[in-house]
Fold:
Amino acid sequence: MTPKGLSEALNLHSDKELIFIDTAGRSPHHDLHMSELRAFLDKAKPDFTMLVMSATTQFADQLRIYNRFEGLATHLIFTKLDETGSAGSILNLLGQTTLPTAYLTNGQNVPDDIEAATPYRMAHQILGEEMPHA
Structure:
């Protein structure tokens, strides 16, 4: 999307309470992609920037990704909780970061499978306890 297209889309949806802008996935190893993402965020001027982290990613990789995107993100979203039986890496990462977790996803049917990351919900996910969707 061009900067002009972004401005038009934001204006079109200015009456919405919450707007998610899904940027293209960026490799934390590619400096050009990281600078393009920074430029995009500078233009979008979001209130919050969510770093999306898969719960299926190993802790060492989660930490490396977090460190590379540090300074760009204000919150975390953990996805693919329905695809793992061991979400303990989330707890490990939260012990190493200062960002709050905003949302959890438990499937690919958004918005139905996205929910606020309350301490109660996170504890159940980390402990591997089944919970019905909210």
Summary: The two ends are 33 Å apart (CA to CA). The mean pLDDT is 83. Residues 47 and 74 are 9 Å apart (CA to CA).
